[in-house]
Amino acid sequence: MRILLILAVSLLTVVVSEEYQSTYVSPDGEVFHYRVDNTDLLSSLNIDRIGENSLESMVQAILNKENGDIKFHIMGNDHFDSTEEDFEAETLATRDLMETGFGRHLPSMSRAVFEETGVSGRENEGMMLLHQLAMFSHNYHEGRHTPAHSRRVKRNALSALLGADENGVEVSHDVKGVFPEEIVKLCESSPLKEHGGCTVDLGVESSDNVCVKHDDYDFGEDWAVVHQFSADEISKGCYGLCGPWCTCWSHVCGDCCWHPGCYQHDRYCDKPHSLSCKLGRGVVFGRKGLHAC
Question: What is the pLDDT at residue 166?
Fold first, then answer.
């Protein structure tokens, strides 16, 4: 009996679990309960609207880490799988979500949750879903694009929220003395100058802003690893940065570097009025997409 007990204990798998849950009150006075669970096998995000005598499910998302499958349940729609090739049904449901008051306030909720928990999207896949939905909300509602500057039409409406420190104060765009002179000149020249320039936390080659390598994710052939931006990449508007142009939204990826999912989404935004751009295809839709960082 003792031998069997020792064997049974040795076969047990220890599952480490993280859980974050609290409430958020929107500017309209609506109250929402969120819960993020993260284990070695699964990650999930659940957001419910709290009524006087009821709960209304707004978003449920489950990531199976063993096979990469993602299932969504949005505003009462049945769960469906998300793939890079087939995301149309999910896109339409997400568009309906964005039209609600909840959808419009996702950016402020995203920032509030980060300030309460201190957990970035890169550190927790459930948080990643929340922060990316917030980005989609801004793309959808306030994504003013300016194709007058060549083909560069990367999202550029998030400057009030992007690059903020732990107190919500936007990071400085005064990069003199921070970056090499060549980079400073680019940041202060058109078209970057008209779109916020560069934040001091931008991951620039030869700067002290570190980029975290994530070799545990295989993005396949032609997918470069996370890296600092070269002068050429900055001159083109920082495709691959989480944020508008060369302004960083650091609480999603945890740094201000080039990331494959962000790059994929920015390329979709070469067509700024497309649903692929507004609703974040390449960032959360698809197995490559969830691991944008």
Answer: 46
